[in-house]
Sequence to fold (337 residues):
Amino acid sequence: MQNIIEDLKKKFKEEMQKVSDKKLLEDLRVRYLGRNGELNKILRGLKELSEEERVQVGRYINEFKKEISELMETAEEKIKQMAEDFSKEWLDVTAPGAKLPQGHLHPRTIVLRKVEEIFQSLGFSVVDSREMETDYYNFQALNFPKDHPARDMQDTFYITDELLMRTQTSPNQVRYMEKHNPPLRIIVPGKVFRRDASDATHESQFYQVEGLMVDKHISIGHFKAVIGEFFSQLYGQKIKIRLRPSYFPFTEPSFEPDISCTFCDGRGCRICKNTGWLEMAGAGMVHPFVFKSAGYSPYEWQGFAFGFGLDRLVMMKYKINDMRVLNFGDLRFLKQF
Ligand code: PHE
Fold:
């Protein structure tokens, strides 16, 4: 008899483990403690036992009953707690989603992508490049005389005697031509560095886009056409080009292309200081010295090269009057794009 009760206890505890809600708990209670429950079945069988046994078994059963009620109570408490937790965790799957703040491209990146897209449509490849250069590629190969002011410690961040942070993207003219045969059309965008004090229109770090086209019979006319088409596409309006004579050691002749003012269409305004023109770049026909540096025959090949400041284009496109805001990382500024 004792064994039967022990087995029943074991079974009860096992079933108890599986109970997860009120309804199952009640079922369990009825099955054990109910009128026709397991315990009453045993009690009914007591008649056949001797007086002595009956007292003993009765005591067992009472203990068991007590145990069951206690376990039931704890289980009930647990179930109640679970229900409470669950209601706190309740999730409304029909609630409209909360909008997460979304990042976006920096205005400089937006303009650079547009620049690359336009030049690619004109058959130019976009070439990647290094920011740290050798004195050779940044200056010597580009025909900078030893006493050229751009080599001065005032302008260049030197790392060692031979290594420096490039002051222009032009070293990639020679770098690219050394590795590739003509004809070619490339642009090389990238960061350049100069030891300039920073103000509204100067930073010691800014972006240039270098351009180079080499083929047979390339003339200034080709340059004017390409750069004119580029600016017209960039600003979505017909842009006129004017070339002013200039000087760079690595182009001959050299010029600075101006574009007709995008704000007043050339009539003259505050932005273009009433000239109708805006300075845009440095450019020229590739100097024979540069072709020789790269191993090309200057008698066989001609080309034009140009370099313009990307930050300037960004400032003009978005009418920003201080270049420094492009580098501050100030969200109040950046969020406007
Ligand atoms: N590298 C020149 C500068 O930084 C610009 C330039 C590029 C001029 C290519 C001519 C040809 O001022």
User: Anything to note?
Assistant: The mean pLDDT is 90. The chain has two domains: 2-89, 108-334.
